[in-house]
Amino acid sequence: MPYLELDNVSFGFGPMSNRYEVFEQATLSVEQNEFVAVIGFSGSGKSTLVSLLAGLEQPDSGEVRIGGKPVGEPGPDKGVVFQNYSLLPWLSVYGNIELAVKQVFPKMGRDERKDYIQHYIDMVSLSGSEWKLPGELSGGMRQRLSLARTLAIKPEVLLLDEPLSALDALTRSQLQDEIIRIWEVDRRTVVMITNDVDEAVIMADRIVPLTPGPSATFGREFAVDLARPRDRATLNFNPEFKHLRNQVTNYMVSLDQEARRLSSTVELPLPDIQPVRPGPQVSIA
Q1: Closest Cα partner for 59 from 7, 104, 96, 15?
Q2: Cα angle at 140 between 139 and 141, to 5 degrees?
Q3: Of 66, 31, 35, which Cα lies nearest the Cα of 201?
Q4: Which in 176, 185, 218, 253 has the greatest CB count within 10 A?
């Protein structure tokens, strides 16, 4: 049985008279400890998907389940790493993680908590920066801190909402490797949102495209059968990698072209407005 499920989920925003349908009967299944990458264009509902999986939003119809049970309110079983870090700027690296740990494990003793937090700081290679504030860290270091804070609450499901999209190419590739290394050591069920096909192929077990919105759903799935660990230095010469990348890219292009074709056939009624004729001009001496 799948561990994480969206079962015929529909969701939209706004009043029923002028409603924007984000998802329409969207269905997705993720196995326990599987790493799934969801890719899609802007406006296809990627961040809304994370909100539904995390319990921040509830579907209009259908159901979201974890371990066979409906997803309720947000909780520590669902950890989210956001694109914008979401760190408290007045707390240090240690303090940001400690705040989360205290909330989830209130009975943990002071000495045990100190060692526990240090373990996650070391895990994301932030040793020596324990007492730095977020403003003193680079973008990559801040994202590693955000990841450490989320992992420290030991979520059953890790949701990554385009966490690397704002980083430069070198830092992004380093953090991709870091996330995979951590996932292989500390297995969790992972759903990563991305718009980067290469990133999805390098990191995931399976790639699931979102169709363009409105009324988005999930398209054809692609299994990533490349052996782990994946060496990015040699992947560009791997025919399986190149074939899969081209398959996914061509499929996404075809989805975009079909969405553009359909939108071009929709006739938008123009209001019946007539120009106002100017009245006689009056001169003031």
Answers
A1: 7
A2: 90
A3: 35
A4: 176
**Which residue intervals of 110-211 are DSSP H helices?**
110-123, 139-152, 169-185, 197-203
Q: How far, in Å, CA of 196 to CA of 174, rounded?
A: 15
Which tokens go with 194? 């991305």
Domain spans of the chain, in order of start = 1-74+188-233
Tens digit of pLDDT for each residue in 162-205? 888 877 888 888 888 888 888 888 788 999 999 899 999 999 99
pTM: 0.85
Tokens of 254: 């075809």
Of 109 and 1, the structure prediction assigns the larger pLDDT to 109
Q: Give the Cα separation of 17 and 10 in Å (integer).
A: 17
* Rounded percentage of the chain residues whose pLDDT exceeds 70: 94
Beta-carbon count within 10 A of 10 CB: 16
Topology, domain 1-74+188-233: Rossmann fold (3.40.50)
CA separation for the pair 168, 125 (Å, rounded): 18
Q: Nearest Cα to 83, choosing from 118, 42, 119, 125?
A: 42
